[in-house]
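[09:14] KT: can someone run the structure on this one? pasting the chain below
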Amino acid sequence: MPKYFEDLKVGDKFVTPRRTITEADIVAFSGLSGDYNALHTDEIFASETQFGGRIAHGPLGYVVATGLSNRTGLFDGSTIAFLESQWKFTAPIYPGDTVHLEMIIAELRPTSKPDRGVLIREMNLINQKGQLVQTGQFITLIYMKAPKAD
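[09:31] RB: done, structure tokens below
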């Protein structure tokens, strides 16, 4: 059952299932994006950097966060559009890390149209050690519930 504008309140928190970032994820993302930077694809090079080994692409974590958000089913059928995001990369994600997403409702704003509102969620991508690896906001347009017929 999807959540609509009226079902939410500022401060509501939702936690997603976990997902392990695999070697296959990194290889596939390199191919899809065309980003073959040695930090992601060359273990010997990467082992000599501050990271001590290969790391996942920053945008891969962002994309995984969108997928984890969708896995909750909270907004299936109630989302109209993804409007904007703000995102920070706070720590590396390594192959084999398991991440989950914590979503907090930060703001709810009605629009000039009576059937929709703006939803702002604080998004925190956290690894298996409890370390925040990426954080930001997702701003979406969401439906309000249809008014009941009299």
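[09:33] KT: thanks! The longest helix spans residues 58-71.
[09:34] RB: yep, looked fine to me
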